[in-house]
Design brief:
Chain lengths: ~180, ~160
Amino acid sequence: MLKFFAPLLLFVVLAIFLAIGLQLNPRDLPSPLIEKPAPVFDLPDLASPEKSFSNELMKGQVYVLNVWASWCVSCRAEHTVLNRLAAMKVVHLVGLNYKDEPQDARRWLQQLGNPYYVNVIDYEGRTGIDYGVYGVPETYIVDKKGVIRYKHTGPVADSDIEQTFLPMIKQLKTEV
Amino acid sequence: MRQLMIIFAWLLSMAVSAGVEFREFKDSEQEQAYNSLIAELRCLVCQNQNIAESNADLAKDLRRQVYEMLHQGKNRQEIADFMIERYGDFVMYRPQFHSKTLVLWLAPLAFLLAGLLAVAYIIKNKRKQPVADTLDEKKKAEIHALLDDENNDPDKGEGA
């Protein structure tokens, strides 16, 4: 009896493991930065590069950090979602313009609308390395203490906003 | 033929041109550290390439980062830690040994052990199995007679 069922059992176990493996998205890497303080940056403001902006100034409030670039195709799809999020006026969106030409980025915002509270220029991508950015767009939720609580890789969809972002932001706002 | 060779040579040069920015090193030791580090760091954009081979923008940036950190006098471990802190264990082709990577490192050993145990078990069971009883009564009697003979042999000394 066992002789008959052992190979079958082995096959089923193997099949289950392979099925799980196939469904995992290799692009969706767990970020080691979750529950860690968001790396501090002090970078030129996209709107007026002679001024600088640091995320230290965001301490005390929940904010969403969005890494984007005008050369990034899926950022275009995401942009309408971000516009809708901004219109809800529940959270400040901080944009990290990653390895982009500032004039291209400014034109993009003129054409597609500007959902951001502020945008900073990471021309060389050094802040991107600090955040472990490997695919644009990437989006982080940072709490009042400046700790990264969530990371989303790839374009944010309306369903992500509804199911993950809004509940999380609401909860983080209640934290001291 | 000649044209084909030229095309192949050109393709080959494209393949090796990734990761060969002009870099100056303090000494050969530093150069070696640089080369081994960029060979071991995974490019997270094209996940099956290391940053030495990849042409992705991120790979270029990470090579620059490694180079700069070496120049700042950081050692291998410090640079590896820097990358792991930001990109996770996945960034190293040989992830470091700690609680989270325990299974990854020990699973092959466990499988080997399980295999050896299985082999040992099978061999042991095979030995225990009685030899098939195919002899008829007459043959058996013959064998017994022979064995008895031998046991009674006075040359054997301690025979029964």
